[in-house]
Fold these 3 entries.
Entry 1:
Amino acid sequence: MQTLSDAFGRAATDLRVSLTDRCNLRCSYCMPAEGLEWLPDDSVLTDDELVRLISIATGMLGVNEVRFTGGEPLVRRGLVDIVRRTAALDPRPEISVTTNALGLARNAKALAEAGLDRVNVSLDTIRAETFAEITRRDRMQDVVAGLAAAHEAGLGPVKINAVLLRGVNDDQAPELLRWAIEHDYHLRFIEQMPLDAQHGWRRDTMITADEILAALEAEFALTPAQEPRGSAPAELFTVDGGPATVGVIASVTRPFCGDCDRVRLTADGQVRNCLFAREESDLRTALRAGASDLELAQRWVSAVAGKLPGHGINDPSFLQPTRPMSAIGG
Ligand code: SAM
Ligand code: SF4
C-alpha cells in the first residue's frame, strides 16, 4: 500500500472530510452574521463520489481515521448512510464527526448504529446568553441535549471543543470545565486561528494557551498528563489529580505541525494538505472525467507530497488562506 507521505517524514493517516460548507449557526470567529456564499450544489460531491474517494484513501493510501466535518455535517442529508457505507469499508477506519450538535439529539442513536465511533461537539460557553452572542442563534439547549444523546448512544468519549474570545467568554473557562467534568465530557480549548471569513483574527487579541491555562489554574490543579502526545494536537492535563482531564490545542502559540498526520477533502472534492495551505488539488474534475482509482490515488499522493513544514502563522509573511474554515472543513 502507498502512503500519503511528505518531504518532512510525515504520513497523513487522518482524513477530514467536509460534507458541506453550509451551517445553521454563525459563530463570530468562523463566519459573518449574514452567512457566506455557499458552494453551488453541482460542485458538491455526491454520496457515491465521497464514499469512492474515502475508499481510495483507506484502501490504497493508508488512511485509518475519517472525521466528517464542515460547515455543519449534520445538515448534510444522507449523513447516516455515508457513515454506514464508510463503516462497511475494509479496512474499516475509525469514524468520528465534528459537529455543533444541533439536531444531534434526534440522530445520535442512528449514527451510532450506522457505525459512528465518536463525536466532537463545539460548545464555547454554558451560559445561554453568551452562546447566543457567539453563535448569533439562541440554541444552547439543543447543543446540551445533543451532547446528552451522544453520551447515551455510546459515542464516547464525547469531546467538547471550545474557543475563548477576549471580552466575550474568556472569563468562563473554569465553569465550562466544571460542567464538562460533571457530565463526563472531555473538554479541549482551541486557540482561535486566522480562519474566519471576515479576517477579524488578531494575534495580539487572541486568547493564548498560556492565558487559558492560567485561568484554569486559578481554580484547578493541573498536571501534565504523562502519556506521549504523538500526533494528537491537544496537550492534556489531569484536573485535580484526575481521572478528569482537560486539553489545550495551541495551534498558534505552540504549533504541532511537525507531528501533523492530517489531510483534508473539501465538500467540492479538493485535497488540502493543511488547513492553512494556499493551494488545493482538484480530485473532483478527474473523478467526474472518469479517472481510475489508481489515477485518483496518484493525484492524492502528489497533493500531500508538497505539504509545507509548517503553517507559518507566526511569520510576518503569513497570508490567511482564501477559503474560511467552514469551507475547508475544520
Ligand atoms: N460546524 C461544526 C462545528 O462547529 O463543530 C464543524 C465545523 S467547525 C469549522 C470545526 C471546529 O472549528 C469547531 O470546533 C469550531 O469551534 C472550530 N473553529 C471554527 N473557526 C475557528 C477559528 N477561527 N479558530 C479556531 N477554531 C475554529
Ligand atoms: Fe458553523 Fe461550526 Fe463555523 Fe460555528 S464553527 S459557524 S457551527 S461551521
Entry 2:
Amino acid sequence: MHRVKTLGILLMATLTSQALAQKIVIAHRGASGYLPEHTLEAKSMAYAMGADYIEQDVVMTKDDHLIVLHDITLDRTTDVAEKFPQRARDDGRYYAIDFTLEEVRQLSASEGFRLDNGQKVQGYAERFPLGHSAFSVSTLEEEIELIQGLNESTDRDVGIYPEIKQPEFHRQEGRDISTAVVDVLKRYGYSSKQDKVYLQTFSFEELEIIKTEILPAAGIEVNLIQLLGSPESYPWMFESDGMSKLAAFADGIGPAHPLVIERGSSRSNLRITPLVERAHAAGLQVHPYTYRSDPGQVPQYAEDFDDLLEKHYFQADVDGLFTDFPDQAVNFLRTRRR
Ligand code: CA
C-alpha cells in the first residue's frame, strides 16, 4: 500500500516535471519588449535570455529575397518614407515587394511607430527609444545563420518559428512565398518534425497547400501551426470537431490568447474556453500569442504578468506561448520548476 502510494507520487512528480519541461517560450519578433522587433540585436537578446524558439515573420522583396519583417509594408518600422519618398503606392504605403534587397538594406529599422501630425510616436512608449543607435532589416537566411551559429557557439539547440505573412497578397503579386521559405528551411537542414522549427500562417488555404503540395515536393516534413485570430475567419475551427478536422493538416495552433481565456474573465470567474482541451484531444499543440508586460497589457483577470503566465501555462494548460518578454517567461518557468 505504502509502496504503491510512493510509486504513485514518484510517477506524478515525473509526469509533472515532464509536462513542465515541455512548456516552451517563443520570443515574439525576438526580445521585442527591449529592442526593435525583428532586428538581429533583438534576436540575439532573446537567444541569450533562454528562449526555446525565436520567431521570424517573413515577407518577400521585389527581387525575391525573403526578409524578416512583420508587415508587408515598411512604413511602421523603418525610415522608408524619408529615404524613398516617391515610392509609396496610391494608398500611401511602402510595400516591401516594391523594393529590392539592396534598397531595403539602405533603411534604418526602429521601434514601431505611427505618425501624429508628422511626428513619429512609438507604439509602446516605454520600449527602446526611437532614433537611438542603428538597426537594419535582415534576411531570413541571415537570421537562421545567427541562431544556428549561436547554437554552435553556446552548444544549445534553439529553434526557429517562421511565419508566412499574407500568402494571398504574395500570390496576387505573382510570388509563391511558401515555396521560397520551405526551400530555405530545407537548405538549412530543417527537414523533419524532429527538427526545431514550426512553420506558421493565418491562412488555412495556404497551410493546406504547404502540407499537401509544397512540403511533399521538397521532400521534407516540418511542424505546421495554424494561427487563429478571430473566430469569424474560420468558424468551423471553433466547432466541437474543428480541431480534429484541422489535425489532418496542422501539428498545432497559435490562437490569440483571448481565445484561450476570455477577455471578460475576472479573478473570481476565469473563463477558460474549450479550445485547448479540444486541440489536445486532437493531438495538436497550443502556442497562443501575444503576452506582454507593458503598462496596460496585462488583462484585468491576472494580478500581474507572472499570474497571467501561471493561468495560461498551467490553468489553461497551453504548451508554449509567444511573448515580447522572453526573459520573464523563462524565469517564470524556471521558478515554477523548483
Ligand atoms: Ca508573427
Entry 3:
Amino acid sequence: MKRKGILIIVSGFSGAGKGTLVKKLLEEYSNYALSISATTRQPRPGEADGREYFFLQKEEFERKIAENGLIEYAAYCDNYYGTPREYVEQQLAAGKDVILEIEIQGALKVKKQYEDAVLLFVMPPSAEELRRRLVGRGTETKEVIDKRMHRAAEEAEGIEAYDYIVINDDLQTCVRQLHEIIMAAHNTPGRNREFIENIRTELEGEK
Ligand code: ADP
Ligand code: 5GP
C-alpha cells in the first residue's frame, strides 16, 4: 500500500532555529520535501534565488496571487511571503512528507484547506536565548530584531492552534523529536483508513 505524504507546517518565532532544524531534518532523513516560498523581502547575504526563497518584486508576487498560484500568503514585517501550490501538490501525491516553514497566519489558512496537515511550533528554550540567536545570526539590524521580538510576543498568543510544540535547545535532540512526531502522525487511524478497512473485510468471516 502506498503511503500518502503528510503536509507538515513548521512555524516558530524568527530566530528559534526553524531553518537550521529543517535543513538538518532533510539531511538526515530521506522522505521529506521542502517547499520553497516566494517572498518580496530582500535576499540575506548567502541566500540564493530558488534555494532559500523565490525572491519576487511586489508586482510579480501580486500576479501569483491573482493566478491562484499560492496555497496561502501573508504579510510579515512589511513583506509578502507565500507558498507556491504546484510543488506541494506534486510532492504530496508522490508520497513525500512536505514541509512548509511558514508563519502563523499562513499556517491557519493551510489548515483550513488541508485538514490533515500537522502543525508544529518550534520554541526557543527562553526569550533571552531567542534574542541571543537573532543577534548571533547577524543578518538583521537592531531595529529589525526589535520588530521580530515584538512579533514573537504576538505570535506566542497563537501557539494553542498548533498540534505540537518542539523546544529547540539541543539541535540534534530537537531534529529527532521532530522526525518522531511526524512518524507517529503516519500511524493515526485517520491516515490508515484503507489498511483498517482491508483488515475488517478479512475479519468478516470470523464474526
Ligand atoms: P529561524 O529560521 O527560526 O529564523 P535560524 O535557523 O536562522 O532561525 O536560527 C537562528 C540562529 O540560531 C542561527 O544563527 C542558528 O545557527 C542558531 N541556532 C539554531 N538552532 C540552534 C540551537 N539549537 N542552539 C543554538 N543556536 C541555534
Ligand atoms: P524570514 O524573513 O526570516 O526568512 O521569514 C520570516 C517569516 O516568514 C518566518 O516566520 C517564516 O516562517 C515565514 N514564512 C516564510 N515563508 C512563508 C510562506 O510561504 N508563507 C507564510 N505565511 N510565511 C512564510
